[in-house]
Amino acid sequence: MNVSVVHELPVESWASFILKHPHGNIFHTPEMFEVFNLARGYKPELWAATINGQIVSLFIPVQISLMNGLFQAFTTRAVSYGSILFYTEGDNKEALKKLLHTYAQKTTGIPLFTELRNQNDMRDVQPIFQECGFNFQEHLNYLINLDLPEDDIWKEFSKSIRKHIHTAQKKNLTIHEVTDRLQLPIVYNLLKQAYHRIGIPLPALNFFEAAFEVLIPKKMLKIFLVQTEDSYISTRLVLIYKDRVTDWYTGSDRSFAGYFPEEFVIWHILQWAKLHGYRLFDFGGAGIPGVQYGPRIFKEKFGGALVNFGRYTYIHHPVLLTISKIGYEALRKFL
């Protein structure tokens, strides 16, 4: 068995591997790699294992730095948003193990930890991850089956969600897709309001500019704006790949909360996705079981299947991570 760990691949082979793999998702694609590569504060890396030149496992850890200079070491983590894509037949398990071991051994620089955000159930290979130092943490998500008739999807909504959507319709809200780059500052302002409220850092505007330039022409991103007669009041960004639509970023002006634009635009997206043949709406995460999490309370009201694919985390610098957590909580108070 000739296993190699590589950091470069022909784009055609890379894209084909993801497209053909049943669990290949948008976060593995060359296009998302390019988005992260163009954005300030992000540094994507390609890690793949090949056997005799054939790709058998692959992941894209993205180093994210909230600050530069002296504080960079305390504010940099690596996230693999699509986790690891792999095959396990024959010698492929050993290739996966070598990929994980090599990554853990050679990533000794800035990242405090690496987090793999699983997009499917990977518990059958959990012993391999644990052997390589990647610890499992439960993490929830909601998936809505778009193969169901539209009426059945609607019936899965809670009474309050259905009532809120009816209220939004009576307010004569309209929704349109953003196709002009000049509207991105409007979108970004709505995102900033939301992220300021919850005290979580938001990527710089150029991250969304990069996503617009790379993904919109390939129909891998949709940006929706909700408006009243004279105000933009909410936005939602969704990623599109294969048969899945993934909730990505959202923001709104809370002074219009009584118009219920978030419920309204989600229903619009579900209808649009079903009409265009997509089979699954991925709500993009619902927090840790047993821990109070506002977005989960909101998302569960739309029905769908609650899944617990979890995440794997490798800690590179335990002491620095402890210091960083204390500092981060203090920083959030000023965001």
Structure commentary:
- The protein is of the alpha+beta class and 335 residues long.
- It folds into two domains: 3-139 and 309-332, Gcn5-related N-acetyltransferase (GNAT) (Aminopeptidase, 3-Layer(aba) Sandwich), CATH 3.40.630; 142-307, 3-Layer(aba) Sandwich (Aminopeptidase), CATH 3.40.630.
- The protein is built from eleven helices and 17 strands.
- It has helices at residues 11-20, 30-38, 92-106, 126-131, 150-156, 159-170, 184-198, 205-215, 261-275, 294-300, 318-332; strands spanning 3-6, 42-44, 47-51, 54-59, 62-65, 76-80, 85-86, 113-117, 135-137, 141-145, 174-177, 221-227, 232-241, 244-252, 280-282, 305-307, 311-315.
- The strands form three sheets. A seven-stranded mixed sheet has the order 11-12-13-14-15-10-16, with helices on both faces. It has a six-stranded mixed sheet with strand order 2-5-6-8-17-9. The protein has a four-stranded antiparallel sheet with strand order 1-3-4-7, with helices on both faces.
- Helix 9 (261-275) links the parallel strand 14 (244-252) and strand 15 (280-282).
- Helix 2 packs antiparallel against helix 8 (205-215) and helix 6 (159-170) crosses helix 9.
- The longest helix is centred in the N-terminal third of the chain and has 15 residues, at 92-106.
- The termini are far apart.
- Mean pLDDT is 92; it is low at 326-335.
